Amino acid sequence: MLASVALALLCTACEKPAVSWVDAEAVATDLPSPLDYPPYLATDSTLDASSLYADFLLTQDLWREVGGTSLLEPTIAAMSEAKDSVANHTMLPPVQTAPAPLSSLGNGIAPADSMRCARSIRIVSAGARGQVAVWWSRGDGGRVRLAAAWRDSVVAATSDSAARAWRGPILVDSLDQGPGDAQAADRGAYGCARPAPSVVVDKKYGYVHVAYALTGPEGPGVFYAHQMDPRSQFEPPVAIIYGERLGDARVAVDGDVVAVVYEDPNSGTGRRKIGLAVSRTAGHLFEDRLTASGGISNSRDPHVLVRGRAVVVGWSETAAGSDAIFRLRRARVER
What we know:
Blueprint: H1 2-15, E1 19-21, E2 27-28, H2 52-70, H3 73-77, E3 122-125, E4 131-138, E5 144-151, E6 167-173, E7 198-201, E8 208-216, E9 219-227, E10 238-242, E11 249-254, E12 257-263, E13 274-279, E14 286-291, E15 299-307, E16 310-319, E17 322-333
Antiparallel strand pairs: 1-17, 2-17, 3-4, 4-5, 5-6, 7-8, 8-9, 9-10, 11-12, 12-13, 13-14, 15-16, 16-17
């Protein structure tokens, strides 16, 4: 039964695209590039996550991400599709997962993990449910693991501070390859020298959505995972795209529509492209993968917003000796 439903979904996706571009090509803007304000510094894999310098760089990273998303807001608010909704499509049944760990990770601002990679943690609000955190944690042999943790809101918890402790770690993905693994040293970044994961919580269903890049046994790629219940494990990750190197990936969601935007791992280092993958089934199936940027630019640092049937992607195009240009491209999700 599960296979037949999946096949039907795939056939439907073949007959009609899930998403189409509103703009024939990307639009150049005079908006500031998030890469320049504040200037981006490459990740140092040896940096101690508990140091003041690491906290300073993490704060700059977070401001940069918020700034990039805010640049998309006026454009998506002006789209008529933002006022529409996508009719609920046939959804695959949830995968049965084991209960999540309930070990205490402290009640600090962030969950306690002495192996956390610097600048990698992202913490988002889950409304009345509390907060969820996602981060890279150092493993053996230069590998990393993607971990998550939850803590209850003040309303949901009792006055006892222990009731608001972070609980976890909940394993999201453990398939990253280290420098000692077959061909891993030839595939680029490893260990903590990688982009931070992106995490959002959907207001309609309360699902947690995570997009990230790692070097799996099959090679580098962009992956997606979601969690439907904070007391359960994440469902098995979905491969968005495989390629040759790691790059930034970010996720946005509104109800059933999930958008993952990413630096295409198949594009060259001096000619990076931006890709977009869209799901109309709350992340259970990604039907379309589109190229957002042009073929001769060097595009980096993608951002994305979803509202109703409207999707807006933004990124910076860089060239030696020139200021970065921030470009936008609009898309609509088909009903």
